[in-house]
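Please produce the structure of this protein holding BIS(adenosine)-5'-tetraphosphate.
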Amino acid sequence: MFNLILFGPPGSGKGTQSEKLIAKYGFKHLSTGDLLRHEIANETPLGLEAKNFMDKGQLVPDEVVIGMISSALDTNADAKGFLFDGFPRTATQAEALDKLLELKKTSIAIMLALEVSEEELVKRLLKRGETSGRSDDTNEKVIRARITEYQNKTTAVADYYKQFDKVEMIKGEGTIDSIFAALSAAIDKRI
Ligand code: B4P
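Below is the modeled complex.
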């Protein structure tokens, strides 16, 4: 089983690149953003709670997200590998993920971290907001709050995996295909 984390700030292209990586390598895609938006669309209690945080650009509480990932891992027990997109986002989530994978006698093979400047992130997300219907993409204040939340809480996750020598930095600006080629090369070295 080969498990990887696609890491990076909001708008860095995690969702875009995940689609291509799944098509090439056959990973099971687990995006906490997508899972949360699914709960919101179905107006579940979990979704209603999550929406309050997401609309302000804040992270959803750890216990909510960890519970969601835990059940997604259980329902996909036969997957040949997982691509975690947008998870883990805090050190607590990273430790919980390690424990969940250990129970399945597997682990994270690599974290690929996309690097993109703040101005490019804001530009991309405002553009996506014109068509996505996502309430967190239309307001520049909320977008900047998400980036600040990333800097305050999420960059620590890369430090966590660096101690195990599992992080590879990838330039996230350029064409989608050139970024995909760099991600694929990093995976092929370890798979
Ligand atoms: P997510 O759904 O994870 O989404 P994202 O970070 O906003 O975007 P992503 O990086 O996937 O960018 P994309 O490919 O779409 O998070 C949303 C919210 O959910 C969070 O703010 C948080 O509240 C909550 N949440 C999720 N996971 C959580 C967790 N684990 N814990 C707590 N809370 C959690 O690309 C963006 C745009 O750029 C697209 O329009 C795309 O077309 C464009 N683009 C991509 N690559 C490009 C390139 N190379 N050049 C130009 N444009 C490009």
